[in-house]
Structure formats: structure tokens, C-alpha cells
Amino acid sequence: MSDKFDESQELLNLVSQILNAVPKEDFAKAALDGARRSTFSILFVNTKPREYGGYCSKVEEAVAFKTGLQFMVKIWREEFDKLDDTRRCRLLIHELAHISFTDDKPTIFDHEINRFGDFCELPNHDAFSMRIYENIKDQIKMPTFTKPKKRGVGASFKWVKGPRKKEIPNNLPGEGHSMEAQA
């Protein structure tokens, strides 16, 4: 058990809604394609916030081999709790848009590459994530975020083609959730 990280079913549900939303424009679909085809873990971090509200990184090769995860998304809880619903979605979209692939190898889509334009390092100024949010906002039902009673390591996603399958977690402390869903 860790006081540093929180798993959150609400966060898991919101990310799932974002990735399952059908965008009105192709750019929004392309922007989240990496997250849809990857395996990543997302969790709340309870330490003093970094300069930004979230951080996405590629998982180190040995950890990826052992866990099957390709990416780690960290959301600083203190900052997230201060945001309104729109800014929460924009922050998550921003971090999910970092997940990318080059020649079928996991890579981080950097701010400098800016393949879609307006992908700002500061999520609050990120017109890119706002455009995606505007494309999908009618499909998002915001959960009410509560502090969990148990703390763990987060939630893992694996998006695969085919019928939806949801694994039921055993709810042991320190264990994450996994979900397979149709993209």
C-alpha cells in the first residue's frame, strides 16, 4: 500500500469515456489513436504537484517486459482537484495525446513535434486538447471524484479490436485494473 499513489475508478471511467468517444473530426481520432492502441497505466500522485498537472512517460524496457505496460500517465491529484470538469478532460486528453507509436514502437509525442498544431506544453493554454474536447464533450458524463479508501498503483488499459471484455480486479492493495475494449 502506498500513500503516494491513488487508484481511482472515476479516473478510469473518465479516461475510458474519452477514448471511446467518437470525434466529429478525423484529427481528434488520430490524436488519441496512440492511447487507444497502447497499454498504459494511469494513476493519481499525492505528492507535491510538479509544475504541470500531469506527466506521460514511456515505461522502461525491463518494466515493460515484466508488466506488459508501454506507458505511464501520472496525474497530480492536488492540481486535478482544483480544475473544473472541462479542464480535467483537457488535462487527460493532453496527457493521452502524448502516447504515440513510430514504426509500431512506443514513443512519446513531444510538444516540439507538434504534429497537430497548438499542442502547448501548458495544458491550460493547449488549444489542441480544447479542440479535441469540443469534438467529444457531448459524449462525456463527468464522474464525481472521491478520495478512495484504499490506495494502490493505478489503472491499466489495453485497447484491442473485438468484443468488449472487462477483467474483474481482485482488489488487492497495490494491484491495478485492466480493461480491454473495442477502439
What do these coordinates show?
The radius of gyration is 15 Å and the shape is globular. The protein is built from seven helices and nine strands; from the N terminus they run βαααββαβααββαβββ. It has helices at residues 9-20, 26-31, 33-36, 61-67, 77-82, 85-97, 127-136; strands at 5-6, 39-45, 54-58, 71-76, 99-102, 105-108, 155-159, 165-166, 179-181. 32% of the residues lie in helices and 21% in strands. The model is unreliable at 160-183 (pLDDT under 50). It has one domain (5-181). The chain has 183 residues and is of the alpha+beta class. The N and C termini lie far apart (32 Å). α6 crosses α7. A hairpin with a 2-residue loop joins β5 and β6.
Task: Give the helix/strand layout.
Blueprint (H helix, E strand, L loop, with lengths): L4 E2 L2 H12 L5 H6 L1 H4 L2 E7 L8 E5 L2 H7 L3 E6 H6 L2 H13 L1 E4 L2 E4 L18 H10 L18 E5 L5 E2 L12 E3 L2
Parallel strand pairs: 2-4, 7-9
Antiparallel strand pairs: 1-2, 2-7, 3-4, 5-6, 8-9
